[in-house]
Each structure stands twice: as C-alpha cells, then as structure tokens.
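My hope is that you will study the record closing this message with an eye to the fold:
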Amino acid sequence: MKLAGTDPLVTTFWRLALSTLLLLPLQMWRRGNTLAGNRPVPKCNSVTETGPPEPFCSRRGVVVSRSVTLLQRLRLSPVTMLAGALLAVHFALWVTSLSMTSVLSSLVFVTMSPLFVAVLDLVLFREHTSPLLWVAVGVVTAGGVFIGLWSGTGANLGNLLALGGALAASLYLIVGRRASREMDPLSYNVGAFGWAAVLTGIACVVAGRPLLPLSGTSFLWLAVTAILGQTVGHGLINASLKSFQSQFVALMLLWEPILGSLLAFLVLGDRPGPAELVGGAVILAGLALGIISSRRSGAAGPASAEGQPV
C-alpha cells in the first residue's frame, strides 16, 4: 500500500471502492437472494381505479419497493453497515500507521486482533477461554512494550494506531461471524466493503483529501491492493467465518506480518531495527501460543448449529 504513494485515507477509499466495484456486478446478478435467505416476496394485489394506491409492481407481479430492493441488492443492513464502519476505522488507523512506523511493527501490532477477539468473546459472550491463551496475552503484551520502549515518539504513535486498527478488526471479525449465519459471504462482502468505502469517502471530503487525480502508477498499485488484499484476502477471511470461529480465523492472520515484512524488505527496502525484530518475534511467539490454546479448546472447529458464541 506504500507503493501507491497516496494519502492514507485516499488509499483506504480506493482499496474498498475498487473491491466493491469488482464484486457488485456478481452480487447484482445474484440479486434474487435476500438478507434473511431467499424469503418469498408477496404478490401484488389487483389494481383498481377506486382502490388505495398500490406499491410499485414489477412486470412479474411482485411487490417491489425501489429503495428496499436497492438496499437488498447492495446488502446494506444494520449488520453490514456496522461491519463496514469497523472496517473503515481499521483501515484508516492501520494505513496511517504505515507512514509513522516500520512495516514490521505496523503489521505485528495490527495482527494482535486474535487476543482482542479472545478477550471480547469472554467479556461479551462468556465463552470459555483456555489459561494458555492468557499466557499468550501476556507474551504479546511484553513484546509490544519492548518495541514501544525502544521506538521513537513518532513510531510509538504509529504503533498505537496499528493497535487501534487491531481492535477495530477484532470487532469486525466478531460481527462478521454472526452475520455469516444469515448471509452468504459475497453478500456480506459487498455490503461491508461498500459501506466502508462510503464512510471513508465522506471522511476524505471532510478532511479535504482529494480523491482525484491519481497517477497511473498510483492507480495500478491501488488496483493490485484492491484485488489481492481486499477482494481475495478479506473475501476469503469472511468466507471462512461461516465455518470457523472468529478466534481461529484471527489467529490464522499470524502469517501477515511475516510475509508483509518480507515483501517490504524486498520491494521497499524497509529494514526493521533490532528492537522491532526481537519484539516482533516475541509477539509472534505469543500469537503461536494463542493458536495452540485455540486448537486445544476446539476453537478450530465449526460453530454449533445452536448459535453458540464464537
């Protein structure tokens, strides 16, 4: 995302907007689905000259409210709008952090979401949490403190922004896990990504960040980010929420700081310092403990049909 060379908010908007534009035609083609899962739509009553005004009727004789139909096609429900707001906050904080700290530190802090998910599941849904997971929390916290003590003021602010992005991502995963019980992944992605794009677009206008013009190089890298990072990456994450618990899905994001840092070193020449390497290794070790604890407690298994907390 650094290669785009655009403002963080502008980068976030185009990543989300382009991804939505890629998915929207497919979703519109499947517009027969409804949010609750293909509920039957009532037929129109016969129209009389003296009777009350009828709702709009399609040629097939189906009651169709133009506004409701549009919302259904775009999958803008309270759940997807909440998810979109959380996703917008996540990206706004994380992308901003990339300009204030190293790629490694930013990715390590933003992937602390598994621990936030575990704590939130315990607090909000009283889900059983393995004692080993709390050990993982302590290890990850120690790694974060170590990086913070050895970083400059600007880097610390960037680390805090990435940490805030992790909290927003945790809430996004929890909301997405519950939305997966009612919606297919494509519908959820279109609604969440689209609403997040709307919110970040509004934020850009309010903050005076012009969305256009873009150079050809910037647009190219934004398109790559939208296709690979958002449409494919986040799309697969949301699809997996239908079968796996949110804690387990969050823990699988452990690979992001490793691969991201390697790419940043090869492409951008971004060399992390010794403190970031040591602290990052400690944090990754803590996340690995979290994976082990989740496997032992059965967090990798499918959610129960009764709708138990995840």
User: Anything to note?
Assistant: Residues 2-33+63-296 form one domain. The two ends are 31 Å apart (CA to CA). The CA atoms of residues 120 and 171 lie 8 Å apart. Residues 33-44, 46-71, 299-310 have pLDDT under 50 and may be disordered.
